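Per your request, structure below.
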């Protein structure tokens, strides 16, 4: 298990790793690095290995490629320090020799020709096959991405949230009912952690999520009426070829973002979205960045990573995992769990009477036995 937290600032993009860099998590870190690389031009990229206790051979190979790409490492434990020394080479300073003579005109021209050849190969590998196929995939995605859910759905959520500056965190499990029209509802199953995180981070997110479903989906949906798309190349995503498009909103509306859309080259289904919201949800929030990954089979949301840069509490970090429960008429049954007595509705919002998400709070085990 590896936890990846991205700290993004004007001068540095820092990846904080916690756990074991091994197995499938190596590919996950590589995807995060590739996603962030297009926005880190002119800034330092650092990987914090302080809380990493194991790195397998594949993980070491990735760290070597990241080092070659200009990434810096921070290590504290002797094992990680030794690994970083191996990756960076001999830490002992090399004696300065005579300054090499600059290449003459012919040699300089040959160097430039070689560099141009290398760049041409890199560009051809980056952009891959015919961009016309990418444009066709985008056309299919836009045609099949109808705004809003096509049926009532019930989803189980697992939300990990933290306020690192305050040293507080919490984990909440809940059910979400998403109607075809109207406001989403939430039903809490369990919560462990700090109440401040529950009230100030998770509850506010659920409230914003409920409002987003109530907003007219066609006003912010990812289509050509709302966004400009620019082909940006191709990449591997968990063994599948992905077309990458840079997306910029035509209007500055709540819920819209500037970033990238990754589409499956074969099915035109979404694989990943990431970017930064163009309109902050509150005056207390300076910026909101996110990464949303989709299920390779169903194209339903699989995971959402959100970083909020706040004016008071510093950075708020949150990861949301999704698991579909039911759709259609069974969705409301699964959400309400009609075989059992309804529990009172409790507001998680710190402001009494505020129009936050309706959250049902359970005591004891989950009666739905999900």
């Amino acid at each position: 298990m590896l936890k990846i937290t991205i700290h993004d600032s004007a001068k540095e993009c820092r990846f904080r790793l916690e756990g074991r860099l091994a197995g499938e998590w190596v590919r996950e870190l590589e995807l995060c690095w590739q996603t962030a690389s297009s926005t880190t031009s002119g800034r330092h990229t650092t990987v914090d290995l302080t809380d990493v206790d194991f790195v397998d051979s594949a993980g070491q190979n990735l760290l070597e490629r990241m080092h070659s790409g200009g990434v810096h490492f921070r290590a504290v434990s002797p094992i990680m320090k030794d690994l970083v020394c191996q990756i960076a080479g001999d830490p002992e300073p090399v004696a300065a020799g005579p300054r090499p003579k600059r290449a003459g005109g012919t040699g300089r021209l040959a160097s430039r020709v070689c560099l141009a050849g290398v760049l041409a190969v890199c560009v051809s590998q980056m952009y891959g096959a015919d961009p016309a196929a990418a444009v066709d995939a985008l056309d299919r995605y836009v045609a099949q991405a109808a705004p809003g859910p096509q049926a009532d759905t019930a989803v189980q959520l697992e939300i990990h949230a933290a306020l690192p500056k305050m040293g507080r965190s919490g984990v909440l499990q809940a059910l979400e009912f998403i109607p075809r029209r109207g406001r989403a509802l939430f039903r809490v199953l369990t919560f462990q952690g700090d109440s401040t995180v529950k009230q100030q981070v998770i509850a506010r997110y659920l409230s914003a999520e409920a409002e987003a479903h109530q907003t007219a989906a066609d006003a912010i949906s990812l289509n050509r009426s709302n966004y400009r798309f620019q082909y940006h190349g191709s990449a591997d995503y968990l063994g599948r070829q992905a077309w990458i498009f840079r997306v910029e909103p035509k209007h500055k509306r709540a819920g819209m973002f500037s970033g990238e859309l990754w589409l499956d080259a074969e099915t035109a289904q979404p694989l990943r979205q990431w970017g930064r919201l163009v309109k902050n949800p509150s005056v207390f929030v300076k910026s909101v960045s996110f990464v949303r990954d989709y299920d390779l089979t169903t194209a339903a949301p699989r995971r959402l990573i959100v970083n909020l840069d706040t004016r008071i509490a510093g950075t708020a970090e949150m990861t949301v995992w999704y698991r579909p429960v039911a759709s259609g008429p069974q969705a409301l049954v699964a959400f309400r769990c009609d075989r059992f007595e309804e529990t009172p509705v409790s507001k998680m919002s710190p402001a009494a009477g505020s129009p936050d998400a309706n959250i049902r709070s359970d005591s004891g085990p989950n009666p739905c036995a999900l």
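Residues 259 and 275 are 4 Å apart (CA to CA).

Regards,
D.
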